[in-house]
Design a protein that fits this description.
elongated; 4-stranded parallel β-sheet; single chain; 11 helices; alpha/beta
């Protein structure tokens, strides 16, 4: 509070699952604007804007009992907060996947359960060895040494560490394998069909409708993964890329890459395009 008193026209952005109305009420007298980023819809908020970039069938009703009537709701993938590189990389149209030759593998910057190593080993299967793997990890990944060794042992495998142009790698791929979170929307923005693993409680919530509407292929929770079942799913998709093309067509229009600009324009009051209505 003492820090806030030193400034004027303060906008605070809150992105924390343990913060809700009580904390926001306490700071309300000292703030001009409160913006909340959420996806659980499980607690009340005192905020001027609420952002949930995820896709749910019941998007409008999820927060009905948790925010005030006049709170501005920036809901859905149209408000995906992505870096500008994805807008630049997005094509006006997508072509069909004819063969699965290149797979993008990314489980977040830290990948605390070392899913990267697990999947590289799965792709050592003789039936999968011809596929190119583009493996992305963060610079702080504590399994970096193991992953480097595995990528050197497998032919046609390329490791990218802490890269700044991940969109370029996504665009080259025919299929992605990764975790829930922001990269889900990065893959969808560029029309990349995805197999997804969950490793956090909120992932189950965020992924539920994407799974039921077949917008992603869910492999399961990280601690329940079965190598045999994963391989069978990969063989099925490789033999029948039509399944991937169906997902690609369903998801491509969900994220246009303009979400960050929409969010900024709404919060700053600089809305110039009438088509950007909430």
């Amino acid at each position: 509070r003492d820090l806030i008193n030193n400034y004027n026209n303060i906008l605070m952005i809150i992105d924390h699952y343990s913060i809700g109305k009580t904390w926001e009420n306490y700071l309300r007298p000292y703030l001009d604007t409160i913006v909340v980023i959420d996806d659980l819809a499980n607690r009340t908020h005192d905020c001027d804007f609420i952002i949930d970039q995820n896709w749910f069938v019941d998007m409008e009703s999820r927060y009905r009992d948790f925010i005030s009537y006049d709170c501005v709701k920036l809901f859905g993938p149209r408000f995906s907060i992505l870096r500008s590189e994805f807008l630049r990389a997005k094509e006006p149209a997508i072509s069909n996947i004819k063969n699965v030759n290149n797979i993008f593998l990314f489980f977040g910057g830290t990948d605390q359960y070392n899913l990267t190593s697990k999947f590289i080993k799965i792709f050592n299967d003789p039936k999968l060895q011809k596929i190119r793997l583009d493996v992305v990890i963060g610079g702080n990944n504590k399994f970096k040494a193991e992953i480097k060794k595995l990528t050197k042992l497998r032919k046609n495998t390329y490791l990218h560490i802490q890269i700044k142009n991940i969109s370029r790698i996504i665009k080259k791929a025919d299929m992605g394998i990764g975790s829930a979170g922001v990269n889900t929307w990065e893959r969808i923005c560029l029309g990349l069909p995805s197999l997804v693993v969950s490793f956090a409680e909120n992932h189950e919530v965020v992924l539920s409708d994407l799974i039921s509407e077949e917008l992603i292929i869910f492999l399961g929770k990280f601690d329940k993964l079965n190598d045999f079942e994963i391989k069978n799913k990969l063989f099925e998709l490789i033999k029948n890329p039509k399944l991937l093309n169906n997902q690609r067509k369903k998801t491509f229009e969900l994220v246009d890459g303009l979400g960050s600009s929409r969010v900024i324009d709404w919060i700053t009051g600089n809305i110039k395009d009438s088509s950007w209505k909430v």
